[in-house]
């Protein structure tokens, strides 16, 4: 997890009416500073005399300094994908937002205020101002009321606060204190700082190595910290008291993490995970091939022992949906069980049925449209490969979506070449629970995620892959 620890000096005490005169940013990885930016800023307005007396920054000092817009790109680059940390963070963050808004940019980062964090983790101090708190804790400030000195002191303070909270602070619950009494005495909270901030899964086990919970996310470390911070419900407290081991696994992409977690939960049945539910409903869409080779559809009662892609709570809902599909895919209402009797269906005279019911359309042509509907209902985006970042820089991750029950994921080296679609199968492991991962894939595509590349299996050539 990466933090940008910030301090600014300004021309006044109101972020909306003041301009920045100095900025300091220390990029901190939880252990050490890995990058820094400390610079005076020309505010393009006069600095009041009382501000000069407080900070020592005068109009003459900033006359040749860069203007904010000249360092804005560097600030954006440096703070991207970090957590904004400052002592009285609301002020510094608002100053940044005001300056960036004037440039037409929406500056937006998660925030942690070291004042609030210190109050939560270090109770009992008479004052939590940076100067007084650092004096109490033995932290020296080289340059009080200058951005560089105050920000660097905040780095030391934040590092101490991290250590006090077992090296971990949850971004979603930053002021939560890890109460040791809530956890199993053999759970080593110091391992939390070693969990990588990347997509993947985590596994919680008890002292007998029984699996308690499987979690996943685009940032494993954040997910674990957030999960360990949920201490309000009795169920959560019961599980936290049992956890002794936490393991994790990188997945490369958040999509693969979601699918791996769904399958692990279904296969291993962890004690505290809710099992994924199969589609519910009393009625289902059923397909079968008749003696003449036509693919027929009908509404029937759902067999709860079998997977069904489309289910309905009532017969009326099912029939209305089937009528819509008959219309949209130019199908025969009689071949779909919506009409009975001798002769053709009522849609033939209207030109809305090509006559499969009276033998005017061959089964080969008719079945193309039926299978297209079934494919769309089963999984809208079939015959594709999703290529995204791998677990390391030397590989890509693959999600393979083949036929109805061929969904899998795996990895391939960045230097490998694919010539034929079937070669992708050599690099993936097919899911044992395709019905559980289909909703995840549907949600992925409908949310307009942007992987590195999506390839159609029937259009793959070496140029596409390269």
From TrEMBL:
Domain of life the protein comes from: Bacteria
Quaternary structure annotation from Swiss-Prot or TrEMBL: DNA polymerase III contains a core (composed of alpha, epsilon and theta chains) that associates with a tau subunit. This core dimerizes to form the POLIII' complex. PolIII' associates with the gamma complex (composed of gamma, delta, delta', psi and chi chains) and with the beta chain to form the complete DNA polymerase III complex.
Function: DNA polymerase III is a complex, multichain enzyme responsible for most of the replicative synthesis in bacteria. The epsilon subunit contain the editing function and is a proofreading 3'-5' exonuclease.
UniProt xrefs under Pfam families: RNase_T
CDD domains: DEDDh
PANTHER family, sorted: DNA POLYMERASE III SUBUNIT EPSILON, EXODEOXYRIBONUCLEASE 10
GO cellular component: cytosol
Residues annotated as domain GIY-YIG: 197-274
Entry-linked Gene3D superfamilies: GIY-YIG endonuclease (3.40.1440.10), Ribonuclease H-like superfamily/Ribonuclease H (3.30.420.10)
Upper lineage: Bacteria, Pseudomonadati, Bacteroidota, Bacteroidia, Marinilabiliales
GO biological process: DNA replication proofreading
An example Gene Ontology molecular-function term: DNA-directed DNA polymerase activity
Name this polypeptide is given: DNA polymerase-3 subunit epsilon
């Amino acid at each position: 997890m990466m933090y940008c620890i910030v301090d600014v000096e300004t021309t006044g005490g109101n972020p909306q009416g003041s301009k920045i005169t100095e900025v300091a940013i220390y990029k901190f990885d939880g252990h050490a500073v890995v990058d820094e930016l400390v610079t005076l800023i020309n505010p393009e307005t006069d600095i009041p005399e009382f501000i000069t007396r407080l900070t020592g920054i005068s109009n003459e000092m900033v006359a040749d300094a860069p203007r904010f817009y000249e360092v804005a790109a560097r600030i954006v680059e440096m703070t991207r994908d970090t957590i904004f940390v400052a002592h009285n963070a609301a002020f510094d963050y608002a100053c940044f937002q005001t300056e960036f808004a004037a440039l037409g940019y929406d500056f937006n980062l998660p925030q942690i205020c070291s004042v609030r964090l210190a109050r939560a983790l270090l109770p009992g101090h008479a004052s939590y101002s940076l100067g007084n708190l650092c004096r109490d804790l033995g932290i020296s400030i080289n340059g009080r009321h200058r951005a560089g000195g105050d920000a660097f002191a905040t780095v030391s303070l934040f590092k101490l606060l991290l250590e006090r909270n077992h090296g971990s602070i949850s971004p979603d619950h930053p002021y939560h204190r890890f109460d040791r009494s809530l956890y199993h005495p053999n759970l080593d909270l110091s391992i939390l700082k070693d969990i990588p901030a990347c997509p993947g899964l985590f596994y919680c086990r008890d002292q007998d190595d029984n699996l308690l919970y499987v979690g996943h996310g685009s940032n494993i470390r954040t997910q674990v910290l957030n999960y360990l911070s949920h201490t309000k419900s009795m169920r959560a407290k019961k599980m936290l008291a049992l956890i002794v081991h936490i393991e994790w696994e990188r997945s490369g992409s958040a999509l693969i993490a979601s699918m791996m977690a769904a399958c692990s939960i279904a296969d291993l049945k962890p004690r505290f995970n809710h099992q994924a539910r199969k589609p519910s409903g009393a009625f289902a869409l059923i397909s079968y091939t008749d003696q003449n080779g036509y693919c027929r559809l009908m509404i029937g009662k759902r067999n709860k022992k079998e997977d069904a892609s489309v289910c309905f709570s009532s017969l009326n809902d099912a029939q209305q949906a089937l009528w819509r599909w008959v219309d949209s895919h130019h199908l025969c209402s009689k071949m779909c069980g919506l009409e009975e009797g001798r002769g053709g269906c009522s849609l033939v005279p209207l030109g809305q049925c090509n006559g499969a019911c009276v033998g005017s359309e061959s089964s080969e042509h008719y079945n193309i449209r039926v299978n297209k509907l079934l494919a769309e209902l089963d999984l809208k985006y079939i015959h594709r490969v999703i290529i995204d970042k791998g677990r390391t820089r030397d590989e890509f991750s693959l999600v393979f979506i083949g036929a109805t029950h061929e969904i899998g994921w795996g990895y391939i080296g960045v230097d490998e070449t694919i010539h034929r679609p079937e070669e992708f199968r050599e690099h993936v492991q097919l899911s044992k629970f395709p019905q559980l991962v289909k909703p995840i894939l549907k949600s992925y595509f409908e949310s307009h995620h942007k992987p590195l590349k999506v390839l159609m299996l029937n259009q793959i050539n070496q140029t596409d892959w390269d």
